[in-house]
TrEMBL record:
GO terms for biological process: cyclic nucleotide biosynthetic process; intracellular signal transduction. The keyword Transmembrane applies. Coiled coil: none annotated. The chain crosses the membrane at residues 348-367, 374-399, 405-425. It comes from Ensifer canadensis. This is CHASE2 domain-containing protein. GO terms for molecular function: adenylate cyclase activity. Keywords: Membrane, Transmembrane, Transmembrane helix. InterPro entries: A/G_cyclase, Adenylyl/Guanylyl_Cyclase_3/4, CHASE2, Nucleotide_cyclase. PANTHER family: ADENYLATE CYCLASE, TERMINAL-DIFFERENTIATION SPECIFIC, ADENYLATE CYCLASE, TERMINAL-DIFFERENTIATION SPECIFIC-RELATED. Residues 466-600 form the Guanylate cyclase domain. The keyword Membrane applies. It comes from the Bacteria. It holds the Pfam family CHASE2.
Length: 723
């Protein structure tokens, strides 16, 4: 081990220790990133809405228009309660605070009027009494809010039983609550808190406390009380940790067992907001609207009463990024319990994530120092993929929440630190080679150059190359309709996507010429089967362009697709560093390059996107090639035989292409013989071609007009045709 390697290991391990300790301290930024990651999981796979006996009676805009602004007089709420009870609701839970006397009660309205007879006041109805009488002996649950003022704590209508150690100190603390009207409090079948995230500063509701504690007594949430009352249960059974006090693991209420966090919270697994969850309060209250569908929706359901009206500001944000009425989240809690679809983050999740950071960090440091940064990067990518896949699978199939972000981030920082050290200290010589050739060579070619210096011979060098030219069709028309900056953006998007296929197939990017690409294969080092790799690059460009057009990546709309022409030729060319002493370019020159450029230009005349020369076609046995005729190329005294590329070996072996190839051979024979059946054969080939590649349809649509390209011409006429 060299001194540089020793120093690299020490620095790398120090970075790993720092990152491990940072994750163990779990700063707020990491918590927020973890929450966002779990939100994204829910957005990718939200809980599906399933019809369940849970409904929200919504005091919506239509209800306010029909019955006036909020708050409503409580005799109207009494009527709403009576109607719901008549329809057979199993529980009626109000996500509404009843802390003050009803100011719209006739007794309260007239009390301050001068000279009113006190005996008259006593005879006037009191809406609070009317409401209290209405909820008596009905399965009604009222909600209470939290406050930091006073010392009022509501009575608890249910009993509690504990297993394991006492969990009394686990839930969030309740210091004081908003007092309810006494007659309402005493007549309600259940009382529950309506706070969804009292101890969380985030606007997004992710985990909701199902219980609160004052240190001596537990207080259930509105949703839990509604579920209890609906089942006619009288006791909550709370499971604590066997050897750990002030910790909750689960709560049993009636027939349902709900897994909880250590603090008595439920990870909310939300479904998208849907109108199927809501019934307008107007439809319940209006005498003439007792439709069967409303009665069927209410019968046997747990009903939550709340508001979605914008002016009443009871709006919460879910993990899906939707702004929904707060009352709907109480309903979703019960829906989630009834469905049995839960999310949980095991107690050992933090330890597992910390251990993963330490192990992965040490592995990356050793690989970067003693093997190669590339190997370390591959390992890092594998760790990233493994963390993402494992985390997603755990979420999707088991509802478990594991954070992939912290291990991935730590691995990235570790790899960057170790690679930066090696780059600065030990890879200076290789950097010089990479700086010279890294802009236009594939990674595999660079690796071979670095590890075999004899493979790189600079200067003029005659060798067999496969040369490709790519050009954008109708670029002048496209650019005339666009601003210069938009033209640059268009070209960058297109050329970047296309040139990737050259690099991926071990080609060398020679240059970009406006809207064109020049590339070649088999230099600066030997590339086996270079014509076939050039063909694969061209087919990849065809597929990529089709995808970009389908996705409207250029913003031209569905009616205007971008087209390209690709010409490929194989032959001897001179390749090497060319230019001035202080500024040069690694490029290829010669007749082979010129022919490739002319073939690309011939794509317009042939009406097809990929053409290869006969020399290239001979090096591509087994590929799906179709004779495109012999064309006179500019500057050539004889015509050049060209072939249209329909696909690779897989296409060539297909039954469709076999039938097309036989039709094509007959068509060529008829064109050479100037037979009258050429047009019918071309139409038949056009029908077969549509199933192979759409471009062949226009190819066959034009082929009969190019009959002269398939007729043998005496040698003395060849030069005149070319001119």
């Amino acid at each position: 081990m060299t001194r540089a390697q020793q120093l690299g290991v020490v620095i790398g391990l120090a970075v790993v220790v720092v990152l491990t300790l940072l994750r163990a301290s779990d700063p707020q930024l990491l918590k927020q990133a973890r929450d966002v990651t779990f939100d994204e999981y829910q957005r990718l796979s939200p809980r599906a809405y399933e019809p369940m006996p849970v409904k929200v009676v919504d005091i919506d805009e239509a209800s306010l228009r029909a019955f006036g602004q909020w708050p409503w007089p409580r005799d109207r709420l009494a009527k709403l309660t009576d109607r719901l009870a008549e329809m057979g609701a199993s529980a009626i839970a109000f996500d509404i605070l009843f802390a003050e006397p009803d100011r719209l009660s006739p007794r309260n309205v007239l009390r301050d009027v001068p000279e009113i007879d006190p005996t008259l006041l006593e005879r006037l109805p009191d809406n609070d009494e009317v409401f209290a009488q209405s909820i008596a002996e009905k399965p009604v649950v009222l909600g209470f809010g939290l406050t930091n003022e006073g010392s009022y704590l509501p009575p608890v209508k249910a009993g509690f039983a504990f297993t394991g150690e006492s969990p009394i100190g686990a839930p969030p603390r309740i210091l004081s609550a908003t007092p309810l009207r006494p007659q309402l409090e005493s007549n309600a079948a259940g009382l529950g808190h309506i706070s969804l995230n009292p101890s969380d500063s985030s606007a997004v509701v992710r985990a909701v406390p199902l219980f609160l504690s004052d240190g001596q007594q537990l207080y259930p949430s509105l949703a839990m009380e509604a579920l209890r009352v609906a089942q006619g249960a009288s006791t909550y059974v709370i499971a604590g940790a066997p050897d750990l006090p002030d910790t909750m693991t689960a709560a049993k209420i009636g027939d349902f067992v709900v897994p909880l966090t250590a603090a008595g919270e439920l990870w909310l697994y939300v479904s998208p907001d849907t109108t199927e969850r809501y019934v307008s309060a107007r439809r319940i209250l209006e005498d003439g609207d007792m439709s069967p569908d409303v009665s069927a929706a209410i019968e046997g359901s747990i009903v939550f009463i709340g508001t979605s009206a914008a002016g009443l500001q009871d709006v919460r944000t879910t993990a899906l990024g939707q702004n929904v009425p707060g009352v709907s989240l109480h309903a979703q809690i019960v829906e989630q319990i009834l469905s049995g679809h839960y999310l949980s983050r095991p107690d050992w999740a933090n330890g597992l994530e910390i251990l993963a950071i330490a192990i992965a960090g040490c592995l990356l440091v050793l690989l970067t120092t003693f093997v190669s940064p590339v190997m370390a990067l591959a390992c890092g990518m594998a760790i990233t993929a493994l963390a993402l896949v494992a985390s997603w699978v755990a979420f999707a199939y088991a509802g478990l929440l594991f954070d992939p972000l912290a291990p991935i981030l730590a691995a990235s920082i570790t790899h960057f630190s170790a690679t930066a050290f090696r780059f600065l200290v030990t890879d200076r010589e290789r950097r010089e080679v990479r700086q010279a050739f890294g802009r236009y060579l594939s990674p595999s070619l660079l690796y071979r150059i670095e590890h075999n210096r004899n493979a790189l011979r600079l200067g003029g060098d005659d060798r067999e190359l496969t040369v490709m030219f790519v050009d954008v069709r109708s670029f002048t028309e496209i650019s005339e309709r666009m601003a210069p900056t938009d033209v640059v953006t268009f070209l960058n998007t297109l050329l970047d996507a296309l040139s990737r296929h050259v690099i991926a197939n071990e080609g060398t990017l020679d240059k970009f010429i406006g809207d064109s690409i020049m590339a070649f294969w088999n230099a600066p080092v030997d590339v086996a089967n270079h014509p076939r790799k050039a063909l694969r690059a061209a087919l990849g460009m065809r597929e990529t362009l089709a995808r970009l057009n389908a996705d409207d990546a250029f913003g031209f709309g569905a009616t205007q697709a971008v087209g390209i022409g690709i010409g490929i030729h194989t032959g001897i060319a001179c390749v090497g560093n060319m230019g001035a002493e202080t500024r040069f370019n690694y490029s290829a020159v010669g007749d082979t390059v010129n022919i490739a450029a002319r073939i690309e230009a011939a794509c317009k005349e042939v009406s097809f996107d990929i053409l290869v020369s006969e020399a290239t076609a001979q090096a591509l046995p087994g590929c799906a090639l179709l004779e495109a005729g012999a064309l006179g190329l500019k500057g050539k005294t004889t015509r050049t035989r060209l072939f249209a590329v329909a696909g690779d070996e897989g296409v060539a072996s297909s039954l469709d292409f076999g039938e097309l190839h036989r039709l094509h051979s007959r068509l060529i024979e008829n064109l050479r013989a100037r037979a009258s059946t050429s047009r019918s054969l071309a139409n038949a080939a056009k029908l077969k071609a549509a199933a192979i590649t759409p471009g062949l349809v226009t190819f066959y649509g034009r082929i009969t007009r190019r009959a002269e390209h398939f007729i043998d011409v005496p040698a003395e006429q060849e030069s005149r045709i070319a001119e």
